[in-house]
Design goal:
Blueprint lengths: L12 H15 L3 E2 L3 E7 L2 E7 L9 E2 L5 E4 L12 H13 L4 E7 L11 E6 L31 E4 L6 H22 L5 E5 L3 E6 L12 H4 L2 E4 L2 H18 L5
Parallel strand pairs: 1-4, 3-11
Antiparallel strand pairs: 2-3, 5-7, 6-7, 6-9, 8-10, 9-10
Helix pairs in contact: 2-3
Length: about 250
């Protein structure tokens, strides 16, 4: 597949990504072990905890096999919105994979971003029986969903048709981004947000806090995927979620 970005996507992307990942793993350049999963229902919101012994190893440990980072060649700040090229590459990769993947973008410090160089992340959707990310409850490809049951913070979600083009997805992103900016104006300020993109839907969540202390939430965490290295961290997250989840974003009035 060749796109207008002059990037050629291999037909066996899944296999090539796994081969490259496993070579890096064999060399010790990255760390990975299949995570242990546990689904917890907190105030009606499903959260799946992915427990991994080395999850605290910054930038070296991979929760998924494989995990990809899509970063700009020249420096651009992580506080910038996505441009057409950014989203085009992410969308083409997402569609090229045979196995369902998800793309996240953490825009700004309060979104839970881990570094200042603009980058997106792409990794396999969590295949955990009984778990589904809450944005998937959105039903319309035309109207923006803002009232998913049980979600205490403002959110903007829209479904995507099977034949959605790069331009179509980028237009929907700009539409959700416009609603996110309006929400910040009403709230009295802010600019940071999470983006979660899968083949079926696109979600933006405006953020006002990255989380309390060392419990930091990025886009995957906001969608219900929590990465933890031990039971103590898991219990701290469970204790703070019922009362603190709304404060991560803009609380729904």
């Amino acid at each position: 597949m060749v796109i207008d970005l002059r990037v050629e996507i291999p037909g066996d992307l899944d296999e090539q990504a796994l081969r490259t990942f496993d070579k890096l793993l064999e060399k010790g350049e990255i760390l990975f072990e299949p995570p242990r999963t546990d689904i917890v229902n907190i105030d009606g919101i499903q959260v799946v905890f992915l427990a991994c012994n080395d999850a605290g190893t910054i930038q070296k440990y991979c929760v998924y096999r494989p995990m990809l980072i899509l970063h700009t060649t020249l420096f651009e700040p992580q506080t910038d919105d996505l441009n057409h090229r950014d989203l085009a590459l992410a969308w083409v990769l997402l569609k090229a994979y045979k196995t369902p993947q998800m793309v996240i973008y953490n825009c700004g410090v309060e979104s839970g971003s881990s570094q200042g160089h603009k980058h997106l992340q792409i990794f396999p959707q969590q295949n955990c029986p009984g778990f589904a990310m809450w944005p998937g409850k959105a039903a319309s490809v035309d109207e923006i969903t803002t009232d998913i049951s049980g979600i205490p913070f403002k959110h903007f979600v829209i479904r995507l048709p099977n034949d959605a083009s790069v331009d179509y997805v980028f237009q929907r992103y700009e539409r959700l981004l416009n609603e996110t900016r309006k929400a910040f104006l009403v709230a009295g300020g802010g600019s940071d947000y999470n983006l979660i993109l899968v083949r079926d839907w696109l979600a933006l969540v405006p953020r006002q806090s990255k989380g309390p202390g060392e419990v930091m939430f990025n886009a995957a965490n906001i969608a219900g995927l929590m990465w933890t290295k031990d039971d103590d961290f898991k219990e701290r997250v469970i204790r703070m979620l019922p009362g603190g989840l709304a404060e991560l974003g803009i609380p729904k009035g």
